[in-house]
Design goal:
By secondary structure, the protein is an alpha/beta fold. About 50% of the residues lie in helices and about 15% in strands.
Length: about 250
């Protein structure tokens, strides 16, 4: 059976975020990078709050439609939340788990309030405002100064998302549970990847996830912040290939 890799994008992006991985890894495995509900070209109905469990169910349906019974499931940031929800719901569909620039803890009261503010800002002022506010936190100072093409790509990707999707996903992230019980019971292969300069998900959050999963590995990519797969795609792709070659 052809090995498959499902990559779940962060907030507020779309499946094309993973283009460097789809291109770089296609010779080694089948890569699926779906648009999560409401993002990119997806036009499925949006609730007020789009939970990570609902997104996980969507991804399982996407896998069914693609004829993929099992896959390595990877997610970055919000995509990591969805990956963990999927692993909790249907562990038999998961060959291995890749958690990138994400965390297993739930939001505290301050975090939930910030999610609601993001939702309201998106609805009232549009995605361009969200893009301008988020960009400095997503990319390293080096990337912002030296890679204008990457800055434009990320900013334009956020700016073209639907305000309703941004709001629904932001509210859904506020509802997610703590996932450390899942990680502590995880017995399949697992990889944690982060960027050396990620301030949104500081290194201790990745260390805690690695320590919770027996036998898992942590890779810290240089020259990268929160969007590690976009800022250092060659190292990211190699890390994924090396990891997948240990069990497939």
């Amino acid at each position: 059976m052809e090995r498959a890799l499902v990559l779940l994008h962060g907030f507020p992006f779309e499946g094309s975020y993973w283009q460097p991985q789809a291109e770089g890894l296609s010779a080694a495995c089948r890569v699926l990078a779906p648009d999560l509900r409401g993002f990119g070209a997806d036009r499925r109905a949006l609730p007020t709050a789009l939970t990570m469990e609902q997104l996980a169910d969507d991804v399982l349906a996407d896998m069914d439609a693609a004829g993929v019974k099992r896959a390595t499931i990877g997610g970055l940031s919000m995509g990591g939340y969805v990956a963990m929800a999927l692993a909790a719901r249907s562990p038999e569909r998961v060959d291995a788990l890749v958690l990138c620039n994400t965390r297993a803890t739930a939001d505290d009261a301050e975090g939930r309030a910030a999610r609601e503010k993001t939702a309201l800002d998106a609805l009232e002022h549009g995605p361009q405002v969200i893009a301008r506010a988020m960009l400095p936190k997503l990319l390293s100072e080096q990337s912002q100064a030296q890679r204008p093409e990457l800055v434009r790509r990320i900013e334009s990707m956020i700016a073209r998302q639907r305000p309703e999707a941004i709001a629904a996903a932001s509210r859904g992230m506020a509802l997610r549970p703590d996932r450390f019980s899942l990680l502590r019971g995880w017995t399949k292969p697992a990889l944690v990847i982060t960027g050396a300069h990620d301030t949104l998900m500081p290194l201790p959050t990745s260390v805690a996830m690695r320590d919770a999963m027996p036998g898992s590995r942590l890779i810290v990519l240089p020259d990268a912040a929160h969007l590690s797969s976009a800022e250092n795609p060659a190292a990211f792709n190699q890390a994924l290939l090396d990891f997948m070659n240990t069990y497939q």
